[in-house]
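Dear colleagues,

I hope this message finds you well. In preparation for our joint manuscript, I am sending the RING-type E3 ubiquitin transferase (Citrullus colocynthis) sequence together with its predicted structure, so that both groups work from identical material. I would be grateful if you could confirm receipt.
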Amino acid sequence: MILHLLFFSFFNLAISSEFCFDSSCIGDSQTIRFPFQIANGQPKSCGYPGFDLSCHATGKPLLHLPPSGDFSVQNIDYKNQEIKINDPYNCLPKKILSLNLSGSPFLKKNTQNFTFFNCSSHYLPYWNIDPIYCLSSYSYTVYASSSPLFIHMFASNCVTIKTVSVPSSSYYSSKLSDELLLKWENPDCRTCESIGQRCELKPSSSHAIQCTHSSQGRSKFSANVVSIAMGGVAATICFLGLLCCLCIKMNFPQTGTHSSSNEAHWTIFSWRRVSIGLDGPTIDSYPKFVLDESLRLPKPNNNICPICLAQYRPKEIVKTIPNCQHYFHECCIDEWLRLNASCPVCRKSAIQSPPSNPP
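The corresponding structure tokens are as follows:
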């Protein structure tokens, strides 16, 4: 406990200054710096209001747009002040239907109007147009197009859902699976970026910005702070280790007449690894079934495995946890349950509770 407190005391000393590091999510190479910041992971002065990011379980940075939910960040262009985003759950058209940037600092770029249609599952378009599988079901099929010709064809045979202005990442894109391209105007850091400097908030200000030189000097200073802190932690560990050894020698029982050299016999304790997952027979006992062509599951909108984030396909084996009825690929949930005894979605215990006896 003492080591724990000392480590975090030194670590907080290292990051409590006004010097901000370039950051990234574990497993992702995208640099996160001003005006963006990782919420609860960096000081608020390191970012600009409305530019908070978080890290997804897959390692991708997440941008939260309050009316529309979370989007995975694919790329940030600091010089042109543009950001490419996608749906972390592989159903971008669903996000597009509810896309609303009001209340955020972001604007749409390269917009095209796409019209969504709800068609009978028996309807076949004249041209080969891919349906939007993640919005469709066994009884209806959803299509979307920006082509006036296709829009006229669908309007004559299907029900119009909505026309949406889509900020495509490329001009005249006909696919809704591409990233969305957003831009921001404020804070305007393009001048700083063009001369090789960085933007940052002015001291004691929440919105005014200034240009500073590259973060090499700040990084060197901060690195020195971290080095001093880690050196202090290492010295403390050595001191406490020496103290423990002295205490053990002073309190260890002597062998008396059984040994002329009066040696102390040390007992070596071995630590046993404790498995916190489930055993094989328990995992194998959970219900599983093979998906048919309809890909229907008992729960609505549950067509993506929450562990690997891949969309289910026909003939795949799906397994459920009885306690909460959440579904997963069999191979995904089996591997998870070997290491964890809880559901990865709701965190409920994966161990079936015995039925309670009626009073």
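For the figure legend, we might mention the following. The CA atoms of residues 73 and 314 lie 30 Å apart. The chain is about 25% helix and 20% strand.

With kind regards,
E.M.
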